[in-house]
Amino acid sequence: xxxxxxxxxxxxxxxxxxxxxxxxxxxxxxxxxxxxxxxxxxxxxxxxxxxxxxxxxxxxxxxxxxxxxxxxxxxxxxxxxxxxxxxxxxxxxxxxxxxxxxxxxxxxxxxxxxxxx
Length: 117
What we know:
Elements: H1 3-33, H2 37-66, H3 75-115
């Protein structure tokens, strides 16, 4: 395998992990909306694990550049890093969304209690 193939494989690994992180985060949000808290938390952890895997690969790229080694710029690199940043953002949003849905469910239970009095 030549260096270009290795470089592309590295970038595709970031894309794979970041994309999986986004999918798990979306599923976690859907489960939270349905009140399936345990499933939501499991999926959120999977999202974080995938994002961490992508981040580790990104860190090796940053380390390489910091050492003065060449890092080939490409559209694929931009896409991989964009997807990684998007995954981070979606995971953060999903964490907030889960907390918000828990609060809403709690408030709905309180309203229901008052309504039934």
